[in-house]
Amino acid sequence: MENSPLRPGSHVPSIDLPVLAGGERSLFKPRDGFEWMLTVVYRGKHCPLCTGYLKDWDAKLADLKALGVDFLAVSADSKERAKVQIAEVAPQYDVAYGLSVDQMKTLGLYISGPRNGIDVEEPFAEPGLYVINNKGKVLIMDTSNVPFARPEPTRIVSGVRFQKGLEQEFPINGTHA
Question: pTM (2 decimals)?
Fold first, then answer.
């Protein structure tokens, strides 16, 4: 795996992680029946803001499905820690766990250590959001170093709806060299 950060317009790396429902999922490859992929990286069990954010995304799942967009949430938490938080969220989407520090770096995420949270055991990823188009390229991405500066789900769904509704492929923003 390369350690250069992911950028808009780039092809996504292959990162497969276990999911709480069993088996593995690719972070950026939509399941059959979907054209695009939306992956949200959340901080983990120690973050109550993440719990609310994950619930917000669950409320938007029907809108995403109608647009042909698959959804996956992921954190660095262990399976046991992820289960505790996700039981409170009760989402209708898959949740992956075990994101490594090297994978966080590849994704261009900010990384915090155990001192940056309460009840934190290992380094963890700060929030990230990635929308991958049907060509396997990063169309939209957002990373933050804090949990209270994340894109609002309704705006992301509207942006995806706009992008998918274009009659011709529009250049990906943020790619001017």
Answer: 0.94
